[in-house]
Amino acid sequence: MDPEETVVPLDTPIEPVEPEVNPAPETPAEPIEPEAEVDVEQLQATNKKLYERAKKAEADLKAAKLAAPPQQASPTNVEETVLLANGMPEDLMKELKAVAAVRKVSLIKAQTDPIFVAVKVQYEKDQKQEAASLPASRGSGAMKVKKDFNTPGLTREEHMAMVKSQS
Q1: What pLDDT, in 10s, does the model give residues 97-127?
Q2: Rounded CA gap, 85 and 121, in Å?
Q3: Is residue 106 one of the residues assigned to a domain?
Q4: Residue 103 included in any domain
């Protein structure tokens, strides 16, 4: 461990260090500026606050770890996850949970229950009907035939409109 990383408890007294005084040369080349004084008491108070805050954070973390043991997946959650991964819609999952709760069986076994099978058949019929009732396509994208003067079956109004649009 590096000496820079060593944690010193706040209870350790800090002795102020007095700067060494060198005998002043007879002719100073540059004027010497006095060093800014460090407020030792303020630094100690700040250090104490930070130390208390760190201790409190460590204690909170330990308490949180002890209070929340790791959760193990219950069999119901595992079965639900498997069924959802296999493509079961949320609506059917709610129905399956209700049937499983009433019959007091697992979700996997409740899939073969006659009540759930009937609900599933009805749901699938509804989904098929919704898919079939989608609006018709707006066309195939084929080009529309442009009428000209040689088009058979032109009415007088259509012929007059074409003459006006040309001139």
Answers
A1: 999 999 999 888 999 999 999 999 999 999 9
A2: 20
A3: yes
A4: yes
